[in-house]
UniProtKB/TrEMBL annotation:
Its cofactor is FAD. Keywords: FAD, Flavoprotein, Monooxygenase, Oxidoreductase. GO terms for molecular function: FAD binding; monooxygenase activity. Residues 6-340 form the FAD-binding domain. SUPFAM superfamilies: FAD-linked reductases, C-terminal domain, FAD/NAD(P)-binding domain. This is Salicylate hydroxylase. PANTHER family: GERANYLGERANYL DIPHOSPHATE REDUCTASE, MONOOXYGENASE. Pfam families: FAD_binding_3. InterPro entries: FAD-bd (IPR002938), FAD-dep_Monooxygenase_BioMet (IPR050493), FAD/NAD-bd_sf (IPR036188). It comes from the Bacteria.
Amino acid sequence: MPTDRIAIVGAGMAGLTAALAFARKGIACDIYEQAPALTEVGAGLQISPNASRILDALGVLEKIETVWTEPERINLLSGTSLRAISHVPAGSFARARWGAPYGVLHRSTLQNALLEAVLAQPLCNLKLATRLSPDDMPDLIGAGKPYKLVVGADGVWSQMRHRVSGGPEPEFSGNVAWRFTVPAAEAPAWLTPDAVSAFLGPSAHLVSYPLKDAGGFNVVAIASGISPGETWEAKSTQAQRQMLLDQFRSWNRQIVSVLERAPAPTFWPLYQMIPGRWQNGRDTVLIGDAAHAMMPFAAQGAAMAIEDAFALAAHVAGAASIAEALDTFEAERLPRIARARARGKFNRFAYHARGPVRLGRDLVLSLRPPQSLAADLDWLYGYRSRD
């Protein structure tokens, strides 16, 4: 083990998971978070088997399993007719095929579970209301100084990225996500309580799934939009809401009605990273969105951050030097992230297809057995990170 203590910048999902993963390897860490308290923004979250098996190894899964929902299937449906196109089996099938569960829950539920585990871990020290900038690093990293490694887990607008020459840069995707919840008592019948449902339509799509821990349904509508700048979320204006409704005007009226009645949806500009280096070869590495923020079309943003954190701890614990650990970590993770990104890009094309392409998509999907669609995800959901 080449280091006894590391600094983690950012106490989001990536940072907290990294802290637990390092502690599991006997490595102490200080987690620096500029916010005075951890308040998770957003709404629902899908945790696929490649991530849930890591949460299990970190002792977190058992806690969230008591309040999440394991959907029986992932439905693909028409956004204009509500007709079922195809589905991927989940539930007990996911546990049997991929060796771990597929669950949905509120983001805050997972963050709170990670936070409780970090606070209970003697090797983890959380420092809230403490901002670290690249200018602070020369006094903290290096021979005879507190840390030999800093982990940038500070998201899309990462400051630690400036310590990595040729690092990735954020780029607005041209899409925005509108997120809101529908109380169970007000939910229409097409919001299925035992499934993740993806409604596909021209130039847009909508995903819904139950949130048992929030007492309703998570709804995310993704369509073209304008970025408000550096923010993780923004309150939508009336003009922005009208822009959303205009893009869904040809959809089924039942869906449009729910969008019209949505109580104060949050507005998330979707950024992705222009690829670049994740580490500087000496003492700084980026993980999660700071390294490779991606579009949500494969629902893998959180899962990839969790995988990064677990793999990085394993590489650092097993390497002869920090430089070696960073090189082998990046070499292992780059192809995995590229493949996940490519899957999301394909899904974006398929989900938002128009005209004859949409008709062909529906025909091809309807002819494939559910088990065949599941087999396409073996590389993704069946993945086992280095331990």
